[in-house]
UniProtKB/TrEMBL annotation:
Residues 6-243 form the ABC transporter domain. The lineage of its organism: Bacteria, Bacillati, Actinomycetota, Actinomycetes, Kitasatosporales. It comes from Streptomyces mesophilus. Belongs to the ABC transporter superfamily. This is ABC transporter ATP-binding protein. InterPro entries: AAA+_ATPase, ABC_transporter-like_ATP-bd, ABC_transporter-like_CS, BCAA_Transport_ATP-bd_LivF, P-loop_NTPase. One of its GO terms (biological process) is L-amino acid transport. Keywords: Amino-acid transport, ATP-binding, Nucleotide-binding, Transport.
Length: 269
């Protein structure tokens, strides 16, 4: 597997009258991990759908350009996008619950560019990354735990031998230990040469994984830069990492001490 670069320019998207993205531009360098942070409804899933060309399945449409590996891909069908090496793991651990784990993985290889040998090699790599998927090969996917289903969703995408993996909130609803496990695996997948575009509400986890980060608010990129620098910025610390602004807290408590109504509010808190 060998990563490839993604260039998104002026991407706007809507669902009928609902504008979900406004003129978004971003880059994923070859072999890089880039994260897009944002709260509920910011447009993160829409961004991934527009890149993977699955937006129409959700009733949406997009304008703007997307280049992958130096070629424009924004006018291609979703199947061509997979064939060129872009695979999306949608939000919500979408596995085929009634099918076995093995059949879920086989389904992932349907759009693959590789021959039989390449598919067997891809399956071996998935089993090395997630041994539980080999142990449970003949079980129905719906019987796996939430974390195991997320592993299966990622494993299924890997069966198509992506150059770029689009991950939609892989930590959503997982216990912290399982979220860390998934993050470790994303790091491992990236070290094997796959570029990653990760959208997350879990900023702490995403900023540890990524080298570059973008913040999306109501469909627009409001901040972007080096992930370490963004993680240290007051704005991101306050809004996405839940860190209290110490100066603001000190000012508020001084004001409360001087003001009787605020002081009473301090008492009841
Ligand atoms: P979350 O973290 O909650 O999943 P998100 O950042 O992924 O949110 P999107 O799901 O991309 O955000 O939604 C962006 C906007 O588009 C929201 O206003 C949402 O209500 C709207 N939207 C998303 N999907 C559809 C759809 N299929 N039809 C109509 N509107 C939609």
């Amino acid at each position: 597997m060998q990563g490839a670069a993604l260039t998104v320019r002026d991407l706007s998207a809507s669902y009928g009258p609902v504008r979900a993205l406004r003129s978004v531009s971003l880059d994923v360098p070859e072999g890089g991990v880039v994260t897009v942070l944002g709260g509920n409804g910011a447009g993160k899933s829409t961004l991934l759908r527009a890149i993977s060309r699955t937006l129409a399945f959700h009733g949406g449409s997009a304008t703007g350009t997307v280049q992958f590996d130096g070629k424009p891909v924004h006018a291609q069908g979703a199947d061509r996008i997979v064939a060129q090496g872009i695979c999306q793991v949608p939000e919500g651990r979408q596995v085929f619950a009634r099918m076995t784990v093995e059949d879920n993985l086989r389904a992932g290889a349907l759009g693959s560019r590789g021959d039989r040998g390449a598919k067997s090699a891809a399956l071996r790599r998935v089993h090395e990354l997630f041994p539980v998927l080999a142990d449970r090969a003949h079980q129905r996917a719906g019987l796996l735990s939430g974390g195991e289903q997320q592993m299966l969703a990622v494993g299924r995408a890997l069966m198509a031998e992506p150059k770029l993996l689009l991950l939609d909130e892989p930590s959503l609803g997982l216990a912290p230990m399982m979220a860390t496990r998934i993050a470790d695996t994303v790091r491992e997948i990236n070290s094997q040469g796959v570029s990653v575009l990760l959208v997350e509400q879990n900023a702490a986890l995403a900023l540890k994984l990524a080298t570059t980060a973008y913040v999306l608010e109501v469909g627009e990129v409001t901040l972007s830069g080096d992930a370490d620098e963004l993680a240290a910025s007051d704005e991101v610390r306050r809004r996405y990492l839940g860190v209290v602004d110490e100066d603001a807290a000190a000012d508020a408590s001084q004001a409360a001490a001087k003001h009787p109504v605020l002081a009473r509010w301090e008492d009841v808190r």
